[in-house]
Amino acid sequence: MQPAVIFDLDGTLIDSAPDIHAAANAVFAAHGHSFTRAEVQGFVGRGAPNLVARLAEARGLPATGPDFDALLARFLHVYEGAQGLTTLYPGVRPALETLAARGLRLAICTNKPLAPTRAVLRHFGLAGLFPVVIGGDSLAVKKPDPAPLRAALAQAGGGQALFVGDSEVDAETAQAAGLPFLLFTEGYRKTPVAALPHDAAFADFAALPDLVAARVSASAAP
Q: Phi, psi (5° rounding) for residue 13?
C-alpha cells in the first residue's frame, strides 16, 4: 500500500487569509470594529472559534457567552461561502495530481470547519483528490492534538504517512502523532523555519513530489 500524504489547508494549499480577513471585517463591522490582514492572519491556525475569540478580545468584546456565540455563528455563516478572494498557492494543483498519479493516498487535516473546507475544495475542483477530509469540527479536539491527524490516517487506510503543513500548530501536531513533517515555508507561520521541527522544507510546490518520494524511499530502506 502506498503511503498517505496528509495536508493542512489554510496557508498550505490555499491562501485564504484575504477571505478570512474580509469575513472578519464584515462581521465585526456591526460592532464598529475592523482589522488589518496581519491582525487576522496572526490568529489563523487554531480553528474558527479561537480566531473569533481572539479577535473579540483584541477589541474588548466578550469571548464567551451568548453574544460571542452569536458573533461566531455569524462569522461561520459568512465564512462558509467565502472563496472569492482565496487562491491556490502556485504549483499546488500539478503537485497534487502528480502525487495522486503515483498512487499516493491524499487526505486533508485542517482546523478549518468542515463545511467551508469542503466548499473551498469544490470551488477549486480538488474535492475528488481528497476522499478523506478531517475538519476542525470533525472531532471534539483540534490540532495540535494529534487525534485529528490520526483520524485522517485511519480513514485513509492506515500505514505509512507524511504530514504537509505551514505552521507551528502543524509542526506540533506531526510531532505528537509521530509522523514526518514537510514544511511549506510560504504560509502563515510566525516562527523562523530553523526553529520549527521538520523533516524537509520547501517554498515551491514543484519540489513536493520529489521530497515525498525521497522521504518514502528513506523510510523503506532497511
A: -90, -35
Cell of residue 81, nine digits: 461561502
CATH architecture label of 17-80 = Orthogonal Bundle (1.10)
Could you report the per-residue pLDDT of 192-212, keeping only the tens digit for each?
Answer: 999 999 999 999 999 999 999
C-alpha span between 53 and 64 (Å, rounded): 8
8 noted as active-site residue: yes
DSSP annotation of 132 = E
**CATH architecture for the domain at 4-15+86-220:** 3-Layer(aba) Sandwich (3.40)
Return d(Cα 6, Cα 38) in angstroms, integer: 27
Rounded Cα gap, residues 83 and 211, in angstroms? 29
Predicted model pTM: 0.89
The active-site residue, picked from 8, 10, 15, 170, is 8
Which strands sit side by side in the sheet containing 105-109, from one edge to the other?
Answer: 132-134, 105-109, 4-7, 161-165, 181-184, 200-202
